[in-house]
Each structure stands twice: as structure tokens, then as C-alpha cells.
Amino acid sequence: MNLGKSVPSVSVTYARSGVSTKANALGMRPMQERAFEKRGEQYLLIKSPPASGKSRALMFIALDKLANQGIKQAIIVVPEKSIGASFNDEPLSKYGFWADWQVEPKWNLCNAPGNDNGGRVKALGAFLESGDKVLVCTHATFRFAVDAYGVEAFDDRLIAIDEFHHVSSNPDNKLGLHLGQFFARGKTHIVAMTGSYFRGDAEAVLAPQDESKFDTVTYTYYEQLNGYEYLKQLDIGYFFYSGPYVDDILKVLDPA
User: Fold this and answer.
1) Predicted TM-score (pTM) of this structure
2) What's the DSSP call for residue 108?
3) Same structural domain for residues 123 and 242?
4) How far is CA 140 from CA 117, 168, 174, 214, in A?
5) Are residues 153 and 243 in the same domain?
6) Mean pLDDT in the chain?
7) Domain residues for 242?
């Protein structure tokens, strides 16, 4: 490795305030509190970095919609089964909130056997007919369920879409197409969450007329990192090397 051939990029020093990890009386960190202030919006877009607490922010908002806003059920939609674990039960009342987050095991379809266009779609249909409140499923299961039951089956329900950048305004994007149908009907609440509001293929996530329907909560990467207690500085650079990188990487990482 030739350390003389480096491309300087970014060096940021942080305040180490600890703010982004401190909770208020309801157990909410700053981003979650900011999002909860907009809990009454029908369409809410949360743009916030990984590890800033988007999943728990959604729990707070969904519980309020179920208890106070006339919403019958909350359906949490994640891109893959492993992410469903982010919405497991949470004892929110232990930290000051007025309710706990609970998902009946049979309604966490990320853990259910079968395929997305089969038993899980039937299970989602059974949930819609039940008196239970919360279901978690994958984007694929949700897409097939909307095809099977129609957008009207989701009236007066909250649809929360995690990793929202999987949506696209391209008409070939099924999730984006369904979203447009929900907007046109106007009887569903939608919370969209993403840490990266852009797509690698340069397609727009939403058409401008649809994006304008959302009230947006933005929590920046700088706010998140500046609020950590122990992060002093972040340096990003490029280093060119030949051969195994492990031979010389310690020269780059040398804190001296």
C-alpha cells in the first residue's frame, strides 16, 4: 500500500452531547419525539438514519392511531423476513409510555411457514376479519394481499412501510402502484420510513404529486452522530493499494 496515494474526503468533529440517546418522560429519543408530534397526520414520511429509532417511533405513532384516531388495525410492512424482528413486542410502559407494543405470534407473518403468495396472504385476510390490532409482514406478502383483497379491504387501517425507498414511481413497481391506489381512495393512513430517500437506479421514490401529500419528519445523520456520547471524530478517506489489504490496513488505522 502506498499511503502517499490517498484522496482526502471528509473529517467531521462531533460535540458528543449524548442528546440523540437520551429519552424524554415517555421514553422517546429526540427523533421519536419529533415524529410523535406529527402522529395525527394521515400520511407521514420519516427520513432518519439507521439506529435512530424509526421502528420504535412507529410503535408510538401506531398505538396512538389505534387508541385515539379511529384506526382499526396497523399493518407493518418490511422488505424481508429478518427485519420483522425489529417490530417484536416492546414494554414501552416500562419507560414511561401509556401502552406496550404487542404482536400476537400468529400475526407476525415474517415467522410464518409457507410462501408470500399462499398461506401468508390467507393469514393476512384472516387478520383483516379479526379484532386483533397489529400484523407484521413482508412487502411481497402485502403486495399479493392487496391484489387478492383490493385496496378497500384496508380502509381505516394504518399501513407502515419500512425501507420505503423500495417503493418507486415507476408503473412497473407494484408497491408504488398500490400506494397510488391508496392515495386515490383516501381512506388509509400511511407511515413511510427510510434512512435513504433515494434509489440506486435513479428512479423517483414518489411522483411529485404523491410526495406532496406527506408531512415529513427529517432527522439528519449529523444530528444523530453529533448526539452520541463517545464519537469524537469521523474521518472518511480513500487509499489505493495492491495485494492483500490486511497487510497494510493498520497503517491507515494507526491512531497516532
Assistant:
1) 0.87
2) B
3) no
4) 8, 15, 9, 23
5) no
6) 87
7) 6-14+232-253
